[in-house]
Design a protein that fits this description.
The protein has 3 domains: 89 residues, NAD(P)-binding Rossmann-like Domain (Rossmann fold), CATH 3.40.50.720; 207 residues, 3-Layer(aba) Sandwich (UDP-N-acetylmuramoyl-L-alanine:D-glutamate ligase); 134 residues, Mur ligase, C-terminal domain (Protein-Tyrosine Phosphatase, Chain A), CATH 3.90.190. Strand 1, helix 1 and strand 2 form a beta-alpha-beta unit. A 9-stranded mixed beta sheet has the order 7-8-6-9-10-11-12-13-14. A 6-stranded mixed beta sheet has the order 15-16-20-17-18-19, with helices on both faces. A 5-stranded parallel beta sheet has the order 3-2-1-4-5, with helices on both faces. It has 457 residues and is of the alpha/beta class. The chain is built from 16 helices and 20 strands.
């Protein structure tokens, strides 16, 4: 198909993000075309319904389909190393993502949240805190609605965006009001050539931001040289005693632990409705972000006390015969599994871990010490079964399962009273499932179908 006009905007990728970009350009009266390597991209029918005359090229992305592009708006699922995209950039085409377009248009402060793990929980919790404080807040980005679609809503006075490394790697200087990278652990090494490249993509969130929120316990998440001025206002969070301008923990096991700001005790850890030390850290991160953007502490604490966590993120499904069954299907990388196992280990005797899927180039060896200390046995599913087996065979017994139903049944056989059966796969889901949500639902259904030894469900 002949695609028109030089200096046009070319949207690369027709999923929900690409569709939101098309809507944005149409609303601005700007010419655009869309290309996608797939013949049947997910948003094709909706796109044709809304833009029946728009230029569209499907199939292999070619130099011809990008010829004359002044600006490539590349969806997160498309690598910038795609040959035709890389050649167009080398020939002078500007490249950006939907988040750049959003930040240029947003008329309210933007809080941007990235990190390997916990970002959906923190994003959601911060949005609830803002609502409790009376703010007209909208949440989107990598979580929920595409960012550009938020601009079609009634005027807001605050935006909270979850941003992935894929979104950030093509972003320019976003200039958000508050930025954080919650933590860094190896992930997506099937897309990045090294952990350093993955970290560098995350770090772009800090460019031209007005305030920082940093994790005192994770040096990899701190801004590297040149990413943020040294004198930028900075707030911190961590699981230690809080310093000046910091959120953390005060107290001890006898007095009880409290979430705190500097020397002020705010709320007992025991009052939280989410489990695990990683969720305590998520709560502290949300408090720090809310404080930076001007939310009142009483409102934030009210929201925090009511927050019950997110589906598929350390979600207690049920207890059966003194064994807890926990769905952490969103645990798609090694760092997430480490956080979940360590976070839950204090509340059970041992963990029977269900893991596996698509490895994404991951190295599973960082799990060894935690598996040895806290995991009774391992049940493996999916493509990475052999790789994980070979990595962990010296520290834990593993069992293979061909389905989630079989995995849950095997885990039940291994668990003793007082244990926890935890689905936290350390892998992507798309070898056996459409996404992590479907994987989590399959786990929940299998768990709910279990019956007691006496025949009761």
């Amino acid at each position: 198909m002949q695609l028109a006009a030089t200096n046009r905007n070319v949207v690369v990728g027709l999923g929900v993000t690409g569709l939101s970009c098309a809507r944005y350009f149409a609303s601005k009266g700007e010419a655009f075309s869309v290309v996608d390597s797939r013949l049947q991209p997910p948003a094709l029918a909706q796109f044709k319904s809304e833009f029946p005359t728009a230029a569209l090229a499907l199939g292999e992305i070619s130099d011809h389909s990008l010829a004359g592009a002044g600006q490539l708006v590349v969806s997160p699922g498309v690598s910038l190393q795609q040959p035709a995209v890389a050649r167009a950039i080398a020939q002078g085409a500007a490249v950006c993502g939907d988040i750049d377009l959003f930040c240029r248009e947003a008329n309210a402060p933007v809080v941007a949240i990235s990190g390997s793990n916990g970002k959906s929980t923190v994003t959601t919790l911060l949005g609830l805190m803002a609502e409790c404080a009376g703010r007209k807040v909208a949440i989107g980005g990598n979580l929920g609605r595409p960012a550009l679609d938020l601009l079609t809503e009634p005027e807001r006075d605050m935006y909270v965006l979850e941003l992935s490394s894929f979104q950030l790697e093509r972003a320019g200087r976003l200039g958000v009001a508050v930025a954080t990278v919650l933590n860094i652990s190896d992930d997506h090494l099937d897309r990045y050539d090294s952990p350093a490249s993955y970290r560098a993509a995350k770090q772009r969130i800090f460019l031209d931001c007005e305030q920082l929120v940093v994790n005192r316990g994770d040096s990899q998440s701190l801004p590297t040289a040149g990413m943020a001025p040294a004198d930028l206002p900075c707030w911190s969070f961590g699981l230690d005693a809080p310093p000046h301008r910091g959120f953390g923990l005060l107290g001890d096991n006898q007095q009880g632990l409290f979430l705190a700001f500097e020397s002020q005790r705010l709320i007992p850890v025991s009052a939280l409705k989410v489990a695990g030390r990683h969720n305590i850290e998520n709560a502290l991160a949300a408090l720090a972000l809310g404080w930076a953007v001007g939310l009142e502490l009483p409102a934030m604490l009210t929201a925090l006390g009511d927050f019950q966590g997110l589906e598929h993120r350390c979600q207690l499904v049920r207890r059966l015969e003194s064994v807890a069954y926990v769905n952490d299907s969103k645990g798609t990388n090694v760092g997430a599994v480490l956080a979940s196992v360590l976070g839950l280990s204090g509340g059970c005797d041992k963990i029977v871990l269900i893991a596996g899927g698509v490895a994404k180039g991951a190295d599973f060896s960082p799990l060894l010490s935690v598996l040895k200390q806290h995991v009774r046995s391992l049940v493996l599913i999916g493509e990475a079964t052999v790789q994980i087996e070979q990595t962990v065979q010296s520290v834990v017994v593993s069992h293979r399962a061909q389905s989630m139903v079989e995995a849950v049944a095997l885990a039940r056989e291994q668990a003793l009273p007082g244990d926890c059966v935890l689905l936290s796969p350390a892998c992507a889901s798309f070898d056996m499932f459409e996404n992590y949500q479907q994987r989590g639902r399959a786990f929940c259904e299998a768990v709910e179908s279990l019956t007691c030894a006496g025949g009761q469900s």
